[in-house]
Amino acid sequence: MKTKNIMIVGVGGQGTLLASKLLGRLLMNEGYDVKVSEIHGMSQRGGSVVTYVRYGDSVASPVIDEGEADYIISFELLEAARWMKYLASGGQVITNTQRIDPMPVITGAAEYPEGLAESMAAAGAKVEAFDALTLAEKAGSSKAVNIVLLGRASRFFDFPAETWEKALDETVPPKFLELNREAFRLGRES
Questions:
Q1: Pairwise pLDDT comparison (132 vs 43), residue with the higher score
Q2: Residue 5, exposed/middle/buried by CB under 10 A (0-12, 13-18, 19+)?
Q3: Distance, CA of 177 to CA of 171 (rounded, Å)
Q4: Residue 141 CB burial class (10 angstroms; 0-12, 13-18, ≥19)
Q5: Are 33 and 56 in contact (CB under 8 A)?
Q6: What local confidence, expressed as pLDDT, does residue 43 receive?
Q7: Are 81 and 115 in contact (CB under 8 A)?
Q8: pLDDT at 38 over 80
Q9: Is 95 exposed, middle or buried (0-12, 13-18, 19+ CB in 10 A)?
Q10: Which residue, among 184, 173, 157, has the nearest Cα to 27 in the 3D structure?
């Protein structure tokens, strides 16, 4: 099997690392060679966080180069646009429509760009943009956006829901498991 490349992008504190860990667990359970690489920007201060997940029969490197990502799973709309140069031709973007203003917007030095989902689609990406935050809150916590996004992303992979649920069971602490199961279900079914 040709190596598949997934980028998970967001802002520090949104749960990108848990999402990559869960995805890596799922793929290993399915028998793939998996490499995960985390890049922390100013994650402690709300900066960009990027995780690469690569899987296939044999994966030599954990790094995804520009134009190689089959999927970008984004926790925030501007982060999806920021990493578009890494998306392969015909690649899929799955993004939360939530806006988290970066510092230049907060200070008034810049404006948050409008029409980002439309711009990404115009550039040739397949874009699925939806309000994952509202679904996470419906599941019981705004912090479950990461699992809602994986629920939505699961529709693009040929693994049954039970396989994803097993990875959730193995990755999420027991006291948060029911909430995360509900977040996954809402993302998958929405």
A1: 132
A2: buried
A3: 9
A4: middle
A5: yes
A6: 47
A7: no
A8: no
A9: buried
A10: 157
Spatial distance between the Cα atoms of 33 and 3, rounded to a whole number of angstroms = 9
Comparing CA positions, the residue from 87, 78, 90 lying closest to residue 52 is: 87
Q: Tell me which residue range forms the domain holding 87.
A: 4-189
Predicted confidence (pLDDT) per residue in 89-113, tens digit = 999 999 999 998 888 888 999 999 9
Residues in Cβ contact with 172 at an 8 Å cutoff, skipping those fewer than 6 apart: 18, 22, 147, 180
Alpha-carbon distance of 68 to 87, in angstroms, equals 6
The two tokens of residue 186 are: 């809402």
Residues 6+ apart with CB under 8 A from 79: 9, 10, 11, 48
For residues 139 and 147, what is the distance between their CA atoms, to the nearest angstrom? 10
- How far, CA to CA in Å, does 172 sit from each of 23, 83, 117? 12, 27, 30
Nearest to 92 by CA among 153, 25, 2: 153
Q: What is the CATH number of the domain that holds 57?
A: 3.40.920.10
Q: Return the closest-CA partner of residue 154 out of 107, 94, 104.
A: 94
Name the domain count of the chain.
Answer: 1
